[in-house]
Amino acid sequence: MQDLVKYIRLFSQHGKLVTLPQVAAVIGLEEEPEDEDVVGQYVQLILAPEYADICMRKSADEHYFFSRKHIVDSYANRWLAIRRGEVLPTLVQQIREASCQHNAVVDESILNYKPYALDSEGREALREQLAADPECCDIAYAKTAQGEGYFYSTRGLNAGYAKVLANYDPNEWSC
Amino acid sequence: MAMNYGGWAGKVLWVNLTTSEIWTEPTEKYLDYLGGSGIGYKILWDHHVDGQLGTDPENVIVYSIGPLTGSGVICSGRMTVTSRSPATPGHLITDGHVGGHIGPEFKYAGYDALAVIGKANSPVWIRIEDDKVSIESATAIWGKGTFDSNAELTKLMGQDAQVFSIGQAGENLVPMSGFMTPGGHAAGGHGAVMGSKNLKGVGVHGTGTCTIKASRDEMRALDDHILGIIGSNNNNVVPSTPQSWAEYYSSGSRWKARDEIKWGAADEPVELGEVAWNERNRIGYRCSMAEMYVGVEYTNKWLKRMGGCHACPIRCYCEMKVPELKSRFKFKSEYITNTCGGFIWGNYLMPTTAGTEQYALTATAGAYLRDDYGIFSGYGLTHHIFKDMKTADLFKHLLSAEEFADVPWEQWDNNEPEFLVDLYKRVAFPDSYPHENALGRMMGDPVSYIDIWKLDGTNPAIDNWNIYAESNVHLFNRSMRHALHHASECASQVGTLINVIFNRDPMCHSHINVVNGGLPYDILAEVCAEKFGEGAFDPVKWYTPINQGKVNFAKWCVVKNVLHDSLTICNWVFPLIISPDKEKNYRGDSSIEAQMYSLVTGDKVTEEELDIMAERTVQLHRAFTALEMNSNDLRRDHDVLSDWVYDIDPDKNFGDQGTIKMDRDDIQKALGMFYEAWGWDSETGIPTRATLEKFGLGYAADKLAAKGLLPG
Asked: Number of CB pairs < 8 Å for A and B?
C-alpha cells in the first residue's frame, strides 16, 4: 500500500477519493492489490507518521482513500454520498447545516464545483427534484439582486434575512 | 530602557531644511513608545505649537519604523509617517503607513526615524547613505510626477536604494496628497506637508543590518508557527470558492487562487490552481486578488504577478501589464502596481459596471494617474462626494459657467475613463486654470469645501443638500470629516467606535482580520466571545445594543492597530486570532506580536505588557488631539457621527434585520463605555490625569491642565 500513497495524494489534490483497484488500474499495475485485509494494511500504513495524512472510508462495500492534506472530512463524506447517488440528501443536509448552525445561505454556484460538479441541466433537475420532494419542504430557493441563486432552510432562516445574507457584500462599503 | 536590545538601529536622524543642519539623537529616549507611530507622536508632541498648520515650516514630519522593521519577521516591512495633516479640520495630527521596502532600508542605514523640520529655499531631496546624509537639489525633478521622480532618484542612488517622492499634487500643496515609492506603495495625507517644505523626496541606501537577539532556529520556529496559522490578505482563512481542502469558503475571501485564475501577463503564464493552506511554498499564490478590481477576464489578461512588501509571504500587490495604458491613454508605461483602494477609487467615481472593460480600465488608468500625481482620496471620500453630487446634478449650481463648460461631462456620462485624465489634472494643478477650478479644489480639499459650498444642508442653491445625510458619500465622522473605513457596516458598534478615535479614516483592520475572515458566523462569534466577552460580534446586518464585549473588542482593535504601526507589522494581515487550520479549531494566536518582539529585541514581554506599551501611544494621541483642538470635550468636538449613520433605511429601526443603522442613544452609551475602558472621562472622552500618569504621560496631563482641558 505504501507504493500507492503518492497516487492517493495526487488524486486528492484533484478532489478525488480512490479505491486501491482504481489506483492500480490508472498506474498500470499488473496485479491488483489484494483487498482481503485492506483495513489491516491501512492500519499498518498509518502507524508510520509520514503516512498519517492518509484516511480510509468504507462506502457501498468499497474502501476509499484520500489524503487529509488536500481533502477535509466534510468534503469526503459529501463526495462519497454523491457517488452513491445521494445528491439531493447531501445538498439538503448542507443547506440545513448552513441555515441552522452557521447563519448562512448556500450559493447555488457550489453545484458548479466538486464534489457536485453539475452542469446547468443537472442543476435545474436538482432544483426540480428539491421542489417536488415533500421531505424538503423547508428548503427554499431564491435569487440575489445579481440574479444568482441561493438556497436556505426555513428551519434556520426566514426569507427576509436569507435575502440579506445572500446579497451581502463585505466589500460594499470598505475594501 | 537601555539600548542593549536588538531590533532598533539606535538613532533618529534630524534634518532642518531651513538651516541645512543635520544631526542625530539616540532612539533610547523613545523606546517606551516602541517605534513607528509611537516615535512620531512623541516627536510631534515635543514640538507642538498651538494653532500650527501642517504647512508651517516648523511643523515636523516624521518617517519612522519600529524594532521589528527589517528584522525579517513576517510582515515587517512598513513605515509610518506622522505629522499635522492639511487633510483634516484644523490640520490635526494623523499618521499614514507605507509598505514596500523603504522602512527596512532606513533600518539598514542605521536609523529608526527621519524627522524633518523647516523649509528649504528651493526644491530639495534628502539623500541618506548610511551615515552620509545630504540635502540635494531637486530642481531637476520638481514638477514631475512620482514615477519619473522615483526613477531619477533611483538612477542617482543606484538600484539598491529605496526612494519615495511627492508628485505635482504635493508640490501644489493639495491637502489630499501623499507620497509614493516605486511599486505602488503610498501613504496619504502629508504630501502637502512635504511640498510646503520644498521637500520633493527621500532616497535611502543602507549597507548595515538589523541586529536581532534570537537565534536562527528560534526565528525559524516562529516563522513555522506563523505560516501554520496565517491566511491571505486581511487574514482571510478560507478560499473564495468551494475547494476540497477547506471545510468552508466565502465568495468575498481574498484567497482567490483556483483553476479559473492565472497570472496571464507573465512571460510564461502561471496557472495558479487551488492552493491548500498547508502548501507553504505556494503561499504567494493565495491572494491573487486582481479580480476584485478588474474582474476575472482582465485578471487573466493583465495580471503579471503578485508583489508586495519586505518579509511578507502574502503578496497582496497586483502587478499589472495593461497595454491600453500606452495605446489608448498615451501614458509612458503600460505597467501599474497597486492594491485595494489604489484600484478601487476610480470606480467609486465613475458610473461603471463591474466586470466590464470600462470598469477594468477605470481601475488601472485611475490608479496610474493618482499614483503619478500623488493624489490621496481620503479613503475614497472625494470620489464618493463627486459621484453623489454629479448624480444629483449639483455642480451646475456651484461652478462658474465658464468652469462648468470646461469640464468634459459627457465623458463621465458615457463612462469613458478619459474623464479621469481631465479630472485628476484639475486636482493636481489647482491654480493652472483660467477659472477658479472649484471642482479640482474641492476634490483636493473636501474639508474646506464643505464650508465653502455650504454642503451641510444650508445652501438653498443646491436645495439644502446635506453631505452628512448622504449615506452614499460615506462621510462617517462628522467632526473630522473623514470617510468610513470598516465602520458601522461591519461589526456594528465595534467598527463605529474604531472610526471615532483617529483624526482621519482609521486604517484599522484588526477587526476585519477576524470578522471578514470568511469563517461561518457561529465560529467567529465564538472566537470573539472567548476573546472579548459574550455578544462581541453581531450577525451581519442584525445588530444588538452595545455591550461590554463589543467595547472590549473595539479597544483591542485600536490597541493592536497602533501596536502594529509602532512595531511595525502589517495591520492588513495581523492580528491572527483565527487561522485556516481545522485541527486547531480555526484558532490562531494573538500573542504572535509579543513573541516576535521578545525574540528580536531580547526584551521578553507578554502580550498584555506589549499592548500596554502600544496603548501609551493611543493615550498620547488622544491627549494630543484635545490639545490641538483646544477642546475639553472630545465627545462634543471630535466624536460626532454623520446623521446618515443613524437615519439610513428610514423604514427600519436599529436592530431590525437587514440594516446597518445605528441608534443615537445607543452610540452615546457606547461612547461612554468606550471612554471608561480607556480610562477617559466618561462624559468628555478626555484622558484623566490618573490614566495619563499610569502610562508615564504625566507631562501630557500637566500640559492639558495648564490649558484647562484636563477633566476634573
From this structure: 83
B341 touches chain A (CB under 8 A): yes
Cβ burial, residue A69 (10 Å; 0-12/13-18/19+): middle
A115–B657 C-beta distance less than 8 A: no
B516 in reach of chain A (CB within 8 A): yes
- A94 shares its domain with A111: yes
Q: Where are the alpha helices (DSSP H) in B228-356?
A: 291-302, 324-327, 341-349
Residue A118 and residue A65 in one domain? no
Residue B517: closest C-alpha in chain A: A170
Residue type, A36: E
Q: What is the mean pLDDT of residues A93-107?
A: 97
Cell 445652501 locates to B459
- The number of distinct structural domains making up chain A is 2
How close does chain A come to B291, measured CA to CA in Å?
A: 13
Give the whole-angstrom CA distance, residue B176 versus residue B120.
Answer: 22
Domain CATH code at residue A161: 1.10.10.10
A56 lies in some domain: yes
For B399-424, how does the pLDDT look when each residue is reduced to its tens digit (9 = 90+)? 999 999 999 999 999 999 999 999 99
- Tens digit of pLDDT for each residue in A2-50? 888 999 999 999 999 999 989 888 888 766 555 568 888 899 999 999 9
Q: Is the ipTM of this complex over 0.90?
A: yes
Residue B2: predicted pLDDT: 46
Same domain as A121, residue A149: yes
Q: Is B281 on the interface with A (CB under 8 A)?
A: no
Q: Do A171 and B542 touch (CB under 8 A)?
A: no
Put simply, whether A97 touches B (Cβ < 8 Å) is: no
Q: How far is it, in rounded angstroms, from Cα B496 to Cα B510? A: 13
Q: Domain limits at A101?
A: 86-167
- Please name the residue of chain B whose CA is at the shortest distance from the CA of residue A175: B340
CATH classification of the domain holding A41: 1.10.10
**B487 exposed, middle or buried (CB, 10 Å; 0-12, 13-18, 19+)?**
buried
Alpha helices in B140-215 (DSSP H): 146-157, 168-171, 191-196
Which residue of A71, A72, A164 is in closest CB contact with B541? Answer: A164
CB B550 within 8 A of CB B535: yes
pLDDT for res B253 = 96
- Tell me: do A99 and A161 sit in the same domain: yes
What grid cell was written down for B702? Answer: 500637566
* A133 belongs to a structural domain: yes
Residues A98 and A64 in one domain: no
C-beta atoms of B540 and A12 within 8 A = no
pLDDT in tens, B303-350: 999 999 999 999 999 999 999 999 999 999 999 999 998 999 999 999
Taking CB atoms and an 8 Å limit, are B244 and A72 in contact across chains?
yes
Nearest to B174 by CA among B437, B484, B452: B437
Residue B97 neighbours by CB under 8 Å, 6+ apart: B78, B79, B80, B81, B187, B507, B565, B568, B571
Task: Tell me, yes or no, if B251 comes closer than 8 A to chain A by beta carbon.
Answer: yes
Q: Does A117 touch chain B (CB under 8 A)?
A: no
- Is residue A175, in this structure, part of any structural domain at all? no
Boundary-marking domain end, from A78, A110, A142: A78
- Going along chain B from its start, the domains and CATH numbers come out as 11-205 (3.60.9.10), 216-373 (no CATH), 381-473 (no CATH), 482-506+508-570+606-706 (1.10.599.10)
In a domain, A172, yes or no: no
CA B548 to chain centre: 28
Taking an 8 Å cut-off on Cβ atoms, the answer to whether B542 and A175 are in contact is: no
- Residues A90 and A163 grouped into a single domain: yes
* Domain termination residue (choose one: A78, A95, A119): A78
* Structure-derived torsion over alpha carbons of residues A62, A68, A74, A79, reported in degrees to the nearest 10: -40
Q: Cα distance from A31 to chain B (closest Cα, Å)?
A: 31
Contact with chain A for residue B492, Cβ under 8 A: no
My answer on whether A99 and A61 are in the same domain is no
